Amino acid sequence: MTDSAALPVIIDCDPGHDDALALLLAVGDPRLRLLGVTTVAGNQTLDKTTVNALKVLALAGAAEVPVAAGCDKPLVGDLTVADDIHGASGLDGPDLDVPVAEVSGEHAVGLMRRLIVEPAEPVTLIATGPLTNVASLLHIHPEVTSNLERIVFMGGSTDRGNTTPYGEFNIVTDPEAADIVLRCGVPITMIGLNVTHQALATTEIIAEFEGMGTRLGTVCAELMTFFASTYLREFGFQHPPVHDPIAVAAVLEPSLVQTVIAPVAVELTGTHTRGATVVDLHRRTPYRPNADVAVGLNVDGFWRLLMSAVRRLNKSA
User: Fold this and answer.
1) What share of the chain is helix, strand, coil (3-state, %, to 5)?
2) Domains of the chain: residue spans and CATH
3) Half-sphere exposure of 108 (CA within 13 A, CB side)
4) CA distances from 75 to 109, 127, 196 (A)
5) For the segment 78-90, what is each residue's pLDDT rounded down to a tens digit?
6) CA-derived radius of gyration, the chain
7) Of 33, 137, 160, 204, which has the fewest CB atoms closer than 10 Å, so is most exposed?
């Protein structure tokens, strides 16, 4: 499905309904070469996010992609999962009883290091969960930065949060990890809630998945239907935002996501704001810019990109 000229990427994730769509987009677009998938505790516990990643890859016909489990808790403090949004399994909704491959015997940090240093060309690391694995990689193996093209992460926001008033889930789960990543010196793109909340899985989008008439299309529709029910209950949203695949879309087609370069810091100590991303859009601080921050999205282009990838996987199944 991919060739040697495709862009090499690693996805670090915590599936998660929107992580599942991110994986499908990465596998289903031949312009990306998915070298490996690493999992982290976040939306659910590590054992569950790892199984979920294996299941999504199996459904996508990509069981050969190596999957390694990583950190089971944040660098500081205890883990709080998002079972109110993603359910007890982390992927509640569809029947995902599929045969899966074995998880790698390597730790996620070891697999990421190997997959980054071995290729001749630089590797892009896409993170759609808490940044614990990525921060651990940068701390333990700083040599990887020489062959990292870019780190693209879904997390944070230029305005409000979804877990605390100003904190987005992935960053709030491990603020210290996010702080390490944002100070690492590698080119970074931040895909925050201010943009992901524009990509809504409307009833028309869910119907388009269902109308594909395939198991994978039905799974996507059922994932989004469950996701919609929890977002309605917890936030009062009529349609749920699909955050994580936008990080993959930004790698595939950068023109879909408008960004501005800005200084970004993570609040580590605030009583009410721990885990908030402080994005200095108007340069009111003396800090140097350290991230390309997403500020706009071509919503129609994004959905067409994702639908094309899922249809491509349907045809190859």
Assistant:
1) 40, 20, 40
2) 7-316 (3.90.245.10)
3) 30
4) 14, 16, 26
5) 999 999 999 999 9
6) 18
7) 204
How many other C-beta atoms are found inside a 10 Å radius of the C-beta of residue 63? Answer: 16
Six-digit token pair at 46?
């590590």
Contacts of residue 153, defined as CB under 8 A and 6 or more positions apart, other chains included, come to 126, 127, 128, 131, 134, 170, 181, 188, 189, 190, 191, 247
Report whether 189 contacts 250 (CB < 8 A): yes
What percentage of the chain reaches a pLDDT higher than 70?
98
DSSP string, 273-297: TTTBEEE-TT--SSPPP-EEEEEEE
Cis peptide before 129 (omega within 30 of 0): no
**Distance separating alpha carbons of residues 75 and 10, to the nearest angstrom:** 21
pTM: 0.97
Cα(264)–Cα(278) distance, integer angstroms: 6
Run of H or E residues at 67: strand 67-69
Residue 294 backbone dihedrals phi, psi, to 5 degrees? -70, 130
243 is annotated as an active-site residue: yes
Taking residue 101's Cβ as centre, other Cβ atoms within 10 Å add up to 14
Judged by average pLDDT, the poorest of 2-11, 196-205, 238-247, 301-310 is 2-11
Q: How many CB atoms lie within 10 A of CB 222?
A: 20
Instruction: Give the list of residues 6+ apart from residue 270 with CB closer than 8 angstroms, or none.
Output: 276
The amino acid at residue 152 is V
For residues 101 and 58, the answer to whether their CB atoms sit within 8 Å is yes
Q: Is the pLDDT of residue 2 over 70?
A: no
Report the relative pairing of strands 67-69 and 32-39 from DSSP bridges. parallel
Catalytic residue among 141, 239, 243, 272: 243
